[in-house]
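Slack export, channel: ligand-projects

TW: morning all. Re-posting the request from yesterday since it got buried. We need the structure predicted with the small molecule present, not the apo form. The ligand is NAP; the SMILES is in the block with the sequence. No rush, but it would help planning for next week.
GE: picking it up
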Amino acid sequence: MATILITGGNGQLGSELKKISGQFSGYNFIFTDIAELDISDPTASNNFIAANKPEWIINCAAYNAVDKAETDFENALKINAGAVKNIAVAISGTATRFIHISTDYVFDGNNHRPYNEENQPSPSTRYGQSKLQGEKEALEHHQGSMVIRTSWLYSSFGSNFVKTIIAKAIETGKLNVVFDQVGTPTYAADLAETIMTIVSGTIKNKFPFVPGLYHYSNEGVCSWYDFAKAITDIAGIECRVNPVLSAEFNSIAKRPFYSVMDKSKIKERYNVEIPHWSDSLKKCIPLIFNTINHERI
Ligand SMILES: NC(=O)c1ccc[n+]([C@@H]2O[C@H](COP(=O)([O-])OP(=O)(O)OC[C@H]3O[C@@H](n4cnc5c(N)ncnc54)[C@H](OP(=O)(O)O)[C@@H]3O)[C@@H](O)[C@H]2O)c1
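GE: finished. pasting the full token output, ligand included:
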């Protein structure tokens, strides 16, 4: 029975993996978060991995505070790069497969065509720099590493843009949202399903596991304004959503203007079908309202 270790298991993606793990009864899942295993501690990582001997490790842990990372680079690097190195070194030379998650923020956003895996990363934020360093650690220290870059992640679990927009729209009935930053939202449930397709397909010999870089988001393209407008429309909230320019916001970290990613590689190699972002959003919003109603009871 294959043992699959998921680190950062209480986050958005980790929780979505936990949710679908019941569909994979033949596997031994171990979910950890910082309380059980602090992956920034090399000894703890090494000991935990040696004791549990996972055939697969899926690292969902991260430091995701993009603005805070500008002044807290040391901690961002510690979790987004140092911790990734700890895992990769602990399994170096073994047959353990490592799936690590990265971000569209490794690109500067000056492209006008979707980024593929061959495009040169050039992060314009400290967060992006720390994540890029993490990619290098995973790929350099372990030959069985797959790095999946994703973007604009949301879920019914944890905190994210969708939940923030719903809460602010209900509270204020009026929102200003940037329309000059374009990318693609990713429903963490879809990414979790794709990860398990890769894991289970490899175990069943449906296709070979090919290490390296991959891009994954939902299909389609939108601005944050389009995304917010779709959220309020689908949620049925009366709210005036105004498109505004990034220059009107004083954000600490400079977000990429364009971060659409080309997903051809992952789709072709693993026979993955990716839903359009608006279809996935329609699935997630009722689950968010279920959570809100459940919390009120
Ligand atoms: N969120 C996005 O919009 C986005 C966009 C692109 C890429 N990504 C990437 O996608 C992946 C999944 O993101 P997510 O949104 O699911 O993340 P998340 O919800 O922030 O979850 C990350 C989890 O990792 C935990 N963690 C932090 N430091 C740790 C450590 N030293 N050891 C073990 N666990 C630790 C966090 O605990 P605490 O909550 O206690 O810190 C949290 O439970 C990450 O690699 C992220 O960088 C995310």
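GE: first-pass observations. Residues 7-8, 10-13, 33-34, 38-40, 60-62, 64, 79, 83, 101, 103, 150-153, 158, 188 surround NAP (CB under 6 Å). Residues 3-155+186-219+260-276 form a domain with the Rossmann fold fold (CATH 3.40.50.720).
TW: perfect, thank you
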